Amino acid sequence: MAAGVVSVPIPNDTYKLGFIGAGKMAESIARGVVKSGVLPASRIRTAHLGSSRRAAFESFGVKVFEGNVEVVEDCDVIIFSVKPQIVKEVVLQLKPLFSEKLLVSVAAGVKLKDLQEWASHSRFIRVIPNTPAAVGEAASAMSLGGTATEEDGELIARLFGAIGKIWKTDEKLFDAITGLSGSGPAYIYLAIEALADGGVAAGLPRELALGLASQTVLGAASMVSKGGKHPGQLKDDVASPGGTTIAGIHELEKGGFRGILMNAVVAATKRSQEFSKR
Asked: Which branch of life, at top level (predicted)?
């Protein structure tokens, strides 16, 4: 946005939301927004030429255009949900249409300074969601660009709050956030699979073992996020003296379980930093 241009407040009761990119993440966000009642489907737009993606959005009432220009022209808030390698091309194509729009990017590894430069527009917010957005349990983080207002941030927090939880933070932390919550679901999938394999090794039927493992992880996560206790205390509550749990924890500690998870987050963070420098 040119210097001196004032951000125009977005009317909460009439604004329209547009998605550039009609993939799974855009669909998850749109579905969550509609399901939660934050925004009716009649005020959401996207564009796609493929019949399957058009049908996915139209199935819950979203209007699907044939081109991105129509989306930007018709909407007040624009979310770029395209692959990182084509963000620059798409932003440059639509650049003349951005006046007074609030722009949002969920593209991994693409920094605000680059987005703002390409768009000649600094009313930008960058958000990192993760794949559990598909089931309404995303862990997202956002950072505001140059002329994005606190009101803009609150609006985007409401939208992404419809698909999980969102934290506002400094963009310099985004590589570490990518290493933790961006890549983290894969670590937990491995843990669930390993727990289930352990159950099978101990004699459980595969289906029962997987069901118990996944529900156990879900329940434990809920205890941490909703119970108010530190995970260390919750662990101590389960581990009675000389019992089964402390025996299992002893094995995990011998294998360096906590250090391995810490190293995974750090390695993924370093990889994200490498992508960010390209």
From this structure: Eukaryota
Q: 3-state DSSP call for residue 178?
A: helix
- Residue 64 phi/psi, 5-degree rounding, is -115, 120
Compute φ and ψ for 120, nearest 5 degrees: 50, 45
Close Cβ partners of 154 (under 8 Å, ≥ 6 residues apart): none
Residue 188 falls within a domain, yes or no? yes
Distance CA 112, CA 232 (A): 37
Same domain, 21 and 45: yes
pLDDT of the residue at 109: 87
Only one residue has tokens 């679901």, namely 185
Question: What is the pairing mode between strands 63-65 and 77-80?
Answer: unpaired
CA–CA dist 149, 152 (Å, integer): 5
Residues of the chain below pLDDT 70:
1-9, 11-12, 278
Smallest CA-to-CA distance from 275 within 143, 177, 175, 176 is with 175
Number of domains in the chain: 2
Alpha-carbon span 71 to 270, nearest angstrom:
36
Same domain, 147 and 205: no
Q: What domain range is 119 assigned to?
A: 17-174
Write out pLDDT tens, residues 24-49. 999 999 999 999 999 999 999 999 99
255 with 194, same domain: the answer is: yes
Residue where one domain finishes, among candidates 174, 196, 217: 174
